[in-house]
Write a structure and sequence with these properties.
Layout lengths: L5 E2 L8 H14 L4 E4 L8 H13 L3 E6 L6 H10 L1 E6 L14 H13 L18
Length: about 140
């Protein structure tokens, strides 16, 4: 059975870049072409995530990032787009910030609007449903 998807966990080690590269290489060698970055908030470490996206995309991976959107500032979204990310999935729990639901739309709204203004074709996938949302 060939692996089809790896969720890369970001570990706090000095050799994490090497671990990420070797993991991506192993997946590639075994026929995998999808890399999902998720769990906690993958954008907490922007330089590391940028390097992972760039390396995986150059090897032909379809890279998916699940985020609450708070850290996906327009400049960073553009950098990740240029690096080759295919999809951003905004995981939001509520409209307004609530103590038990910290992933609120209002905190990510500006960043989401920026993503939705990016012309189709900038990222390898086509915008669907979310692009029809009226702000």
């Amino acid at each position: 059975m060939q692996p089809r998807l790896l969720v890369l966990l970001v570990v706090q080690q000095q050799s994490e870049g090497d671990v990420a590269r070797r993991s991506i290489d192993w997946l590639h060698d075994n026929g995998c072409r999808v890399l999902a970055l998720m769990g906690g908030e993958p954008l907490l470490r922007p330089d590391f995530i940028h390097k992972v996206v760039y390396y995986a995309a150059k090897k032909g991976f379809w890279v998916y990032i699940a985020t609450n959107g708070r850290l996906l500032k327009p400049e960073f979204a553009d950098r990740l787009g240029d690096a080759g990310v295919a999809v951003f999935n905004f995981a939001l729990d509520s409209w307004d910030l609530q103590p038990s639901l910290p992933k609120a739309f209002v905190l990510a709204e500006k960043n989401l609007k920026h993503i939705l203004r990016i012309p189709t074709g900038r990222f390898p996938c086509k915008k669907r449903q979310a692009s029809e949302y009226r702000f």
